[in-house]
């Protein structure tokens, strides 16, 4: 929401100081709103949009609903304990109308068992205190809340065969993880599709989470790497990633075939 308000202000050619003056505050107030550090009421969103001469009613209505609905979520319990990136991903997933995920080397976080998540976290940063490892694992397990609601979030995951075979932990833990992934693939809102080694990948495919919003203009892409993550929301960027998912879909196995594929790899371990 803050990013979209910033875009509206910049399109209007208005400085942050001028926008803050309209609200009767200091420049820092607009900076905090646009960076997501401060909340803002739906009424104030509409006032700012009108001041910026914004004309996209669907966008303005969607932003106002976001402001009205926003409240403290379960992820806020970890503020000051985990880095903001963990909280941002959890909040993004929670409010998304649908999610699409590509994972090349890991099982998606929402479908990780505790033992697998712990092994994965410890393999990445070996000197983390045990308390932080435990907190990260707990946070990852709680992200599954999106599937426990009356209307679970639709989630489509494309997982490369490499992610199924990478040994971040012992064989027993990997077997348990793959069996749980098979179980998750049968959840009502979940679709899991495997990309086998023998399928040709065109272009640069990497791990990415696509979060759909109430309107396409508010969609967000989260890029993940071993040491950092970032968010993209420009229309040109979103279009590129929509094409990426369409391309990956053409080389992936169907849901039922993928379930059998995962089960077979578990039996081979």
Any key phrases for this structure?
269 residues; alpha/beta; globular
Q: Topology, please?
A:
Layout: H1 2-11, H2 16-23, H3 27-35, H4 42-51, H5 57-69, H6 84-95, E1 98-103, H7 114-124, H8 130-142, E2 155-160, H9 161-165, H10 171-184, E3 190-195, E4 208-212, E5 220-224, E6 229-232, H11 235-251, H12 255-268
Parallel strand pairs: 1-2, 2-3
Antiparallel strand pairs: 1-4, 4-5, 5-6
Model description:
With 269 residues, the protein is α/β, with parallel strands linked by helices. Helices cover 51% and strands 12% of the residues. The chain is built from twelve helices and six strands. The chain has helices at 2-11, 16-23, 27-35, 42-51, 57-69, 84-95, 114-124, 130-142, 161-165, 171-184, 235-251, 255-268; strands spanning 98-103, 155-160, 190-195, 208-212, 220-224, 229-232. A six-stranded mixed sheet has the order 3-2-1-4-5-6, with helices on both faces. α4 runs antiparallel to α5. The longest helix is centred in the C-terminal third of the chain and has 17 residues, at 235-251.
Short characterization:
The chain has 269 residues and is of the alpha/beta class.
Q: List SSEs in N-to-C order.
A: HHHHHHEHHEHHEEEEHH
Q: Which structural class do you get from the secondary structure elements?
A: alpha/beta
The overall average pLDDT, rounded, is 90
Distance between the termini: 46 Å
Query: Looking at the structure, what is the overall shape?
Result: globular
Q: What fraction strand?
A: 5-15%
User: Over the alpha carbons, how many angstroms does the gyration radius reach?
Assistant: 20 Å
Count of extended strands = 6
* Largest sheet: number of strands, sense, barrel closure: 6 strands, mixed
Q: Give, in spatial order, the strands making up the sheet with the most strands.
A: 3-2-1-4-5-6
Query: Poorly predicted ranges (pLDDT <50, ≥5 residues)?
Result: none
Please, how many helices? 12
Instruction: Bin the helical content.
Output: 40-55%
